[in-house]
Amino acid sequence: MLIASIFIAVIIGILVGWAWKPKCSFPFSTFLNNSTHSSFSTSTSTTSCGDSFSHVEKDDTNSLVTEQDLGHLCKLVVEKDGGPSWFQMMDRSTPTMSYQAWRRDPESGPPQYRSRTVFEDVSPKLVRDFFWDDEFRLKWDDMLIYANTVQECALTGAMLVHWVRKFPFFCSDREYVIGRRIWNSGQAYYCVTKGVPCSSLPRHRKPKRVDLYYSSWCIRAVKSRKDSHLTACEVLLFHHEDMGIPWEIAKHGVRQGMWGAVKKFDPGLRTYEKERTSGVPLSRCALAANINTKVTEDYIRSLEDTTSNTLETENPGDSSVKPIVKNIPKLLVVGGAIVLACTLDRGLLTRTFLFGVARKFAKTGRSL
């Protein structure tokens, strides 16, 4: 009876695998080196603004990047946001960079990731510009194939940007409409980026838009590993997004590909530093990164001590689109992964990854 039950579950999984047309997205970029790129090119199209984005839908104030978003990031930094505990996934280092990563699984919404990256002998300002500079990002982030500044504010430095990212394996391209803004407090920069609705950028069938997107970081000077001087730079990153695939598979993929993506940061940063030193003019995004909202350290501490939680775990765009159930039966994952490996991609690496996922859940299934 047990064998028959397993056989039936696998058959159902195979049918699900054939029927499912996955359109997924991973937050890390190097599960597979992309050999082809879209014809998209970087462009900028800016419009002056007042204190907010005029093209962002004004009937939903939660879509704007506001002081509430700053407050939530501050609480994430000091781990007072009221979410579940983090558990460590990775601890790796190179001679000029160290990296640690954690994950947690909220009751609703996709997995959330927290990381701490420390770069040696670099200033927080340079690191801030590096991560904000979309034009240069195209040179080291092989997933980003299109970046357009839709709008920016000359007073606050807030931006509305449009990204298209290319994903590996059987996934289609993904589109992001992102609001972002930087606050500066002493030696620290609080950089908030989040998905926002925008009426001037209508949806299309392809590329599919990612609505639930949050990727924010705190950049500040810290002591170097070599001595006690504040010559190193720490980046605390908090990231989650709705990937559109079963979360257990997504977590396995992130774990396998994380270091391959992260180790590109440091060489990219050093190249960026050389270009800046040589006198290369700042890009539009890098110029915007230098327009910050100044806040005092006392104000940051007051935000850290507040008890409100502004994190959104539901899809802010189309409420009719529901995430795939997290606790998908494991045997269905096995069957679906086998079919995907056999029918959707003939590449050896793709099959290896999918069969690896299948084996992982098969081992779990044997213990049931």
Automatic annotation (TrEMBL):
CC terms in the record's Gene Ontology section: cytoplasm
Molecular function GO terms recorded: lipid binding
Domain START as annotated: residue spans: 84-274
Highest rank taxon of the organism: Eukaryota
InterPro entries: START-like_dom_sf, START_lipid-bd_dom, START_lipid_transfer
Pfam families: START
Protein name (Swiss-Prot/TrEMBL): START domain-containing protein
Organism, scientific name: Lupinus luteus
